[in-house]
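Submission sheet (multi-component)
Chains listed below:
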Amino acid sequence: MRGRLLALLIVVVTAVLITVGTLWPIQSASAMAGTSPRSLNGSSGSASPQAAAQSLLQAISRRNWGAAYAALANKSEFSETEFVRDLTGSYTSLRSYATLDGFDLSPLRAASDEAQFQANLNWSSVVGTFQDVRNLRVIKAGDRWQVVWPIDREPKIPPQVIPVNYLRWDVIYRGAQDDWGTQDVESPHVRIVDMHPVDRGGGTVILGELLNEDVVPAFVTVKATLLAKDGSALATEDSFEKISHILLPKQVTPFRIDFKNVRLAQVDNVRIEPSSTLVAASADPVIGVESQKLNPLPLPSLTGQLVNQSGQVVNITHVLSTFYDNRGQIIWVADQYTNRALLPQTPVPFSISYPADLADKINNYRVVTSTFSVGRFQ
Amino acid sequence: MKERTILLSVSIMAAAMQLAAAESGGLQVPRTVEAGSAFSITTSASSKAVLYIVSPLQVLRRDVEPGASVDIGSGALHNAGHYLALLVGPSSTEKAEFDVVAASQPASVSFLAKPSRLPVNLPEGISGVAYVFDVFRNLVLKPMPVSFKLSDSGTPQTRSVATRNGVAWVKMNSAPKAGAAQFQVSVGSVANKRVVQQVPGDPCNLRMSARRSGERVVVETEPVRDCSGNAVSDGTIVTFTQTYNGRSEATVDVPLKRDVARTELPAREGSVISVATGVVMGNEIRLGGR
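Outcome: structure written.
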């Protein structure tokens, strides 16, 4: 009897939710589903400024570049190719493979013939999400509304020669036919130079720094095991992406290992196991991190610009930051991937968020980058 | 296949031990035989018999005619060790024991040299271990002089050590000068070689200079060397950090190329640029005044 009542209740609640969702859909969901107020006349515009902006973002989310471009009011200012490059990047980057997961439109101002919205575009990529904020101006053309797209052209690098002395390491490993006495090349020597467990959000976080003290490049990982008072292992995790895996000689990387389900009070000891493998690597490109600045609450972040000082295009850059207190102790490690390619000598902004409660404690920070270029192994 | 041979050998040896307890004599074998050499076994068999030669690694079977000797050809017995010869006739079994020893001429040497890479100026930092084998890969147990030679750009280090139970080992110092050293071992006419990289130590006296270039400042280290004067390996990361009011404003990790690291930073008045590599700090430069 009780089971039937429960089943009936579930059916009724589901029906109510479907009705509510149909009658009052959320903005981005309806747009993504293609049920938002439609463009009245395809490319010529929409009946309201909000509908025009939604219609445009909906076309972008479907990667229907032709329809999106056709709906713009300022088509004469740029070509469709430039419009697509603005959204997906001129060079291969995280943007090239990202999908628009959703968007929010916030009205900024409205008049009889013009309105302005702030559009927060939430893109989804293989390494997480990133946000793109655009201010959209919507103007009335006749009885229709059209969006003036704020084109963001990637700078073009003038043709030039940038001399670079490339430096790379190649490795000859032991072969299957070698005598048993033939030793393989020695693994790089790495050393943990700092390690600090902290209690964070009911879990334990291991923060630290790892140094490659050898003269060859290393592929590094750090594994940590939390031990209880009786010596038993509570949990084992590794640093995964919160580390720069390729370390050149004398390079230091921060690392962060999260244990979400173990409280620090349970931990008696921590066993850290850094591992290193000798890998072929390149010493280029060199990335400068400039204009670093800590931004206060309510959105605490470390912002700056990445400058590719080499001559090749960097497709994906991983930015890692270590935050220190006034005693020089590590209090947080955070990271971010840039969603645009780094062109030579062209600054690209980055922003790394950190927990709000650490804002008062952070005294200094250090930023490192690791890069990936298409067609190169690093 | 090898396991089956060993199993068969052990079974035959166990059975032979029981029989041998009752019967012996008449079977004449050399006390020691060099691995791979030919030899003869004289028997006193009065009727047809079968001769088994057994060791943990090898088994031979030969039919024996009455009164004939058995010739074991060159290369037939090649594993060094203790052997048992059993002559099994219709009514009796005879037994004899002998040893096969490694050939006296070394044919190969296995060479373990560790580590493959180490800092310069490390006393007894390099170890070399040589195992001497004959042509059949038997360890040559007879003491033999082994020569170790570590050659780099300086004076080579040479040691001669006699093998003990087939093994010889040495420890050698790494040279004060960086570079690839050839570590060679030789026994008679046989030699083997390994490469040991002698690498520079930590940088010593890291210094940089700066010069303005418009809105930028170009910073460049002096050639980076270790405390023995060796150029620190190219590719070593040098970190330039620009701080303003104690906070980091710009950071660049630059690899050494041709002994120097060079980069550009914003020329901000009052900022301080520092240089470091690994855990070694260099000098600081303050831009302009405040």
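Remark: Residues 2-20 of chain B form the longest helix (19 residues).
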